[in-house]
Amino acid sequence: MHFLNMFFFDIYPYIAGSVFLIGSWLRYDYGQYTWRAASSQMLDRKGMNLASNLFHIGILGIFAGHFLGMLTPHWMYEAFLPVDVKQKMAMIAGGACGVLTLVGGILLLKRRLFSPRVRATTTGADILILSLLVIQCALGLLTIPFLRPAYGRE
């Protein structure tokens, strides 16, 4: 059990991050013109600004929180920030960013599905990716209430 815990929480995040960065770099170098998303902004702007801004601000906050949370060693903050306070801050800030992302993602998905002009240019992959992001965000938000009892156990 110790090996699985160490693998999934100490080793695997670095493997996943490396595959993401190296894969993105290679895709950009060797398939530069395949790296695009079909824009639907000109087809229907109604609600686009709100949904897109909520989604992207939330995603950037989630990315920054996970990045800082994974790469900041305990010794850097334990002298002035107790672990339970750090966890509470992460849950509140992460929850807020997660809600922004979820609401924005749902609005973008609704627009993709129910706006006739946007729907005409939408591919199955667009809907699949956006649906997976919304589901992943919802699952991440569902973990917050279950983490709450962990305060003070370390």
From TrEMBL:
<dbReference type="GO" id="GO:0009325">
    <property type="term" value="C:nitrate reductase complex"/>
</dbReference>
<dbReference type="InterPro" id="IPR036197">
    <property type="entry name" value="NarG-like_sf"/>
</dbReference>
<keyword id="KW-0479">Metal-binding</keyword>
<dbReference type="GO" id="GO:0005886">
    <property type="term" value="C:plasma membrane"/>
</dbReference>
<keyword id="KW-0560">Oxidoreductase</keyword>
<dbReference type="GO" id="GO:0046872">
    <property type="term" value="F:metal ion binding"/>
</dbReference>
<keyword id="KW-0813">Transport</keyword>
<keyword id="KW-0349">Heme</keyword>
<dbReference type="InterPro" id="IPR051936">
    <property type="entry name" value="Heme-iron_electron_transfer"/>
</dbReference>
<feature type="binding site" description="axial binding residue">
    <location>
        <position position="66"/>
    </location>
    <ligand>
        <name>heme b 2</name>
    </ligand>
</feature>
<feature type="transmembrane region" description="Helical">
    <location>
        <begin position="47"/>
        <end position="69"/>
    </location>
</feature>
<dbReference type="InterPro" id="IPR003816">
    <property type="entry name" value="Nitrate_red_gam"/>
</dbReference>
<dbReference type="GO" id="GO:0042128">
    <property type="term" value="P:nitrate assimilation"/>
</dbReference>
<dbReference type="GO" id="GO:0020037">
    <property type="term" value="F:heme binding"/>
</dbReference>
<feature type="transmembrane region" description="Helical">
    <location>
        <begin position="89"/>
        <end position="109"/>
    </location>
</feature>
<feature type="transmembrane region" description="Helical">
    <location>
        <begin position="6"/>
        <end position="26"/>
    </location>
</feature>
<dbReference type="GO" id="GO:0160182">
    <property type="term" value="F:nitrate reductase (quinone) activity"/>
</dbReference>
<protein>
    <recommendedName>
        <fullName>nitrate reductase (quinone)</fullName>
        <ecNumber>1.7.5.1</ecNumber>
    </recommendedName>
</protein>
<feature type="binding site" description="axial binding residue">
    <location>
        <position position="56"/>
    </location>
    <ligand>
        <name>heme b 1</name>
    </ligand>
</feature>
<keyword id="KW-0812">Transmembrane</keyword>
<keyword id="KW-0534">Nitrate assimilation</keyword>
<feature type="transmembrane region" description="Helical">
    <location>
        <begin position="129"/>
        <end position="147"/>
    </location>
</feature>
<comment type="subunit">
    <text>Dimer of heterotrimers each composed of an alpha, a beta and a gamma chain. Alpha and beta are catalytic chains; gamma chains are involved in binding the enzyme complex to the cytoplasmic membrane.</text>
</comment>
<keyword id="KW-0472">Membrane</keyword>
<dbReference type="Pfam" id="PF02665">
    <property type="entry name" value="Nitrate_red_gam"/>
</dbReference>
<keyword id="KW-0249">Electron transport</keyword>
<dbReference type="InterPro" id="IPR023234">
    <property type="entry name" value="NarG-like_domain"/>
</dbReference>
<keyword id="KW-1003">Cell membrane</keyword>
<keyword id="KW-0408">Iron</keyword>
<dbReference type="GO" id="GO:0009055">
    <property type="term" value="F:electron transfer activity"/>
</dbReference>
<keyword id="KW-1133">Transmembrane helix</keyword>
<feature type="domain" description="NarG-like">
    <location>
        <begin position="5"/>
        <end position="147"/>
    </location>
</feature>
<dbReference type="GO" id="GO:0019645">
    <property type="term" value="P:anaerobic electron transport chain"/>
</dbReference>
